[in-house]
Amino acid sequence: MIIAVTGTPGVGKTTVSRLLSEKLGYEYVGVKEFAREKGIGEMVGEELEIDVDELAEAMSREFHGRDVVIDGHLSHFVPADVVIVLRANPKLVAERLMERGYSKEKLAENVEAELVDVILVEALEENENVLEIDTTGKTPGEVVEEISELLERGIKRRFGIVD
Ligand code: DAT
Q1: Does 21 sit in the ligand 1 pocket, CB within 6 Å?
Q2: Could you tell me the domains of the chain?
Q3: What's the CA-to-centroid distance between 155 and ligand 1, angstroms?
Q4: Which of 28, 40, 124, 128 is most buried when burial is the number of CB atoms within 10 A of its CB?
């Protein structure tokens, strides 16, 4: 099964994806590392600009039939069995991105994106299995627990097993 974990930078994708992959015994893959390794995208200034169609094609080829958690704010463009959109209070996002030394413009752009559901809307356009999880006030462990319960329920439903 391919699980994509997406969301605005700073919501907790990497923390949650690593924990989730450990809990499920799945491989962990970061979109940026994968793209760099495969030579997908090009550097524009200091940023790696990734072509999402190329990314989606390369990832589906590579991970077809494997159990992976894909971490990245573009992961919802990859054909996945389920897309998890992590959310956090925009104030938290701002604090975390400030700590990371984001420029004022980049910080504002991302906080605004979180405020107006940019990634959620994109994910819903790309995939019919979207789970939105608010991480605010929760520990990463609690978020992972919530995700695995929802996944289990989804799998049971798919096979007609009712709780
Ligand atoms: P992203 O990959 O979305 O940029 P990250 O995982 O690199 O985010 O950073 C998120 C930070 O927030 C990290 O320092 C852990 C912290 N954090 C606090 N509570 C969290 C939670 N419930 N879920 C995920 N991360 C959380």
Answers
A1: no
A2: 2-158 (3.40.50.300)
A3: 27
A4: 40
